[in-house]
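FAQ: What does a ligand-bound record look like?

Like this one, built around phosphoric acid mono(formamide)ester:
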Amino acid sequence: MSLQIKHLLGLEGVSNSDIQNILDTAITFKNVLNRPIKKVPTLQGKTVVNLFYENSTRTRISFELAEKRLSADSVNFSVSGSAVSKGETFKDTVKNIEAMKVDMIVVRHASAGVPYFLTQITDSIVINAGDGIHEHPTQALLDMYSIREKLGRLEGLKVCIVGDIAHSRVALSNIYGLITMGAKVSVCGPATMIPAKIKDLGVDVIYNIDEAIQENDVLNVLRIQLERKARSYFPSIREYNKFYGITEERLEKNGKDVLILHPGPINRGVEISSAVADGKHQIILEQVTNGVAVRMSLLYLLGTRTEA
Ligand code: CP
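The answer part, i.e. the structure of the complex:
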């Protein structure tokens, strides 16, 4: 079945059936990744450019591996070493890359809305790999895949997103996706990090982390973005850790077998203790593994899509 969406700019407005289709197709690709030869000819002849204007480890490598395992020609662009340092504009850079006949662009950029802008200036299929504090849809898709794989469903599950909700593209994409898939979503964090109108999106707000642990099946623990001035939203890192850090003591005290996700990179000892980050509740590296399968699924479905 073809996707209704032509690009993936975010999960806002993406239908339940499209998300279901991407997650179901990812199961097939996860099986491919578990074979000795982890490659299929599905996107042979297609060219994908990974246009990264912001740093990344997981997303960039995951997309590149997904493209290679689908037999697409994969090209990586990063700002360092490019003609951006000579003053070339974003639009000129993209137009020049597209002139080399590319089919798909995977883009990460510090400015919200850049993936949408790309759809206005190119004919390529565009996938958002994280735009500013707007959305990070493939992270949310792999989070949902991982939850569903572990707990068997999304519908009716209680999922709490913990941390800096106001400045997190992971949070927003998870909220849109999980609500569409029938999960009950809440957010937890200091009041300074919870947007005033967040309830309008259909989520509950919890300010007490122990309550969040007791009431939920899943905690998606966000990274405190120290490079984005997150420190100014709470008095000290030690205080954030004391009130919102996920520790073994806290999980044991609440006696709850909660599933812990984290999108990475982890700040050990800040939002999550090392014991929890490496412990029995978490599936952090499984998320990373699943990310390749989910991105293969998305690239395949968008790259072979036919107009209805
Ligand atoms: N989760 C995530 O987006 O990590 P990277 O910044 O390493 O891609």
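Follow-up question: can I read anything off the structure? Yes, for example: Residues 16-135+288-303 form a domain with the Rossmann fold fold (CATH 3.40.50.1370).
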